[in-house]
Predict the 3D structure of the following.
Amino acid sequence: MIDETQAGQEYYYYPLENIEDVDIFYEAVERERLTKAVSEERPYTYWTIEIYDQANGIRGGGGLGTLAADTRRVAERMGVPFALITPFYPYESRQEIKDGIVVDEHRPVEYRKFGFKFVDKVNIKCCGQLCSLDVIEKKFKHTRIIAVTEPNFGELYSGVSGSDHRLYQEVALGFGGYAALKLIGLKPAVMQLNEVATFFAALARLDELASNGMDFYEAVVYTRKHTLYTNHTLVQAAEAEFTREQFERYVFPNVKSPAVRKWLSDKFDGDRIKLSSVTIEIAEMRSGVSKLHARVANYRDIAGNKVKFRAVTNGIDMDYWVLPGIMEFMRNAGIIDAKGFPTVNYSDKLELLTADKIREFKRQGRRLLNSTLKKKPDHQGRILKFKDDDLVYDFRRRFADYKRPELAFRDPMRLRNILESHNAHYLMAGRVHSGDQTMQEKLRQILEIVEKDDYLREHVHYLPDYDEKLALALSAGCNAAINVPIVGLEACGTSWMKDVANLGVLISTHDGGVADGPTRAYLNVSGNDESEEINMLYQRMEEAAAIWESDFDLEYTMREQLKEYLPVISGARMLQDYLDFLFPT
């Protein structure tokens, strides 16, 4: 996998305007059809270390969890038999600002309050003893959430990557989750492994087949052909690595087959093993989450060969993330259909989207934003309320170094002039991962810059404890969204999709899922170095303000964004792409 230094050097100036068809680029990804179709008894199984679904009482950490919830909801709407398997963490993380520092607070949660039912218990073996896990389930018409949990499970991403507790959680999800499936009476038609933390689910399946009499090599082939590994990040920090001694305590006690144990032992490089390497080995199908991501992902198998990824760009559940008024308009106008697919002639139908309608929808979003902010004070404890004609920029996404939340603050006086000349506000929201000292310090520096300027102090606001409700309110109620990751480091991102769908002006670098479309479709931020990008960012902020002052420009901008990105945004399109990949005709 590329580290951040290499990525910045090798891909920062990559010519991204005309990416060739990834399907052709990776035409070597050929395989036989799967042996079983999806059914109620053999569902599409989706494995994830987190889900972010506040409606069902599960609060995740970021985009991976949000995507999991969206995928399950889209499968429900499309009538696809679908089982999402995840841990249920008995503690959820809340964040607040104290002396300029983000502080985590872990609060207990009770699954029964959200409609989950206890099924039974399953056991795994760790450190020479049995560990009992509760299996809980919430069923919908076509889909279900199956979770394993126990009182000492801790919170999401407890400890550092590579720690004993993190490995325990992942083994519990894999071996415990697979046992939970059997307990409920389900067999996976396919296993989608979202990130390497879910590797142990496929290992459990391989072990079951091999220990129940199937020839080991046939078991490997069968498991590989029914397993999809989806990589969601290009950031080196996501790489999980463990020691042989840790595997002896947490993993090998759960492996029954001597052949599987030997197969896994051979994957170690000396005393250590990378989960990405063995996940690649156990899954014949591999996908990246945008066209650019699938092209630049630099993973290699045990033999050192570069692994090819199929592009299935992420999408969102538009019915969940888009204002009801906008969705009603799009359906009545024939822009999208009942399941969330863009219609054949959606581009022509977008001519019905007028400036008056756009401004009315944004007023609806502003009311939602103001209502949400009543319970979400900013970093200074202020309750914010914006007028309909206030111009509001927002930067809302996980605070990670490559996403560059500090970029707009490199020239504080220029930022002040933009805000002052347009009576504008700048909102920031996003979770800072516990223990990320780099981003803690960057946030502290940003807030220090804001505090030193009397105008910025009143017009720049950081909103702690970012969650789903605030994410929706910001995308619906803000005028322009800022998305400026270092090109080549964002796998996809979905925050920008919600902004576009809720009729916000997108200001972005050409990275992640944004690069699925052309640069003309949004306000592109680019340059030969970062100083040029900073200058371009301020120019684009000025342009975004001008767009909202002109009916003609507003109509043109929104129509062009939606023409290019509605198919990209569609969660229904995403799931259909996965089904076409997994079950080719």
In short: Residues 1-35 have pLDDT under 50 and may be disordered. The radius of gyration is 24 Å. The chain is about 40% helix and 15% strand. The longest strand covers residues 129-139.
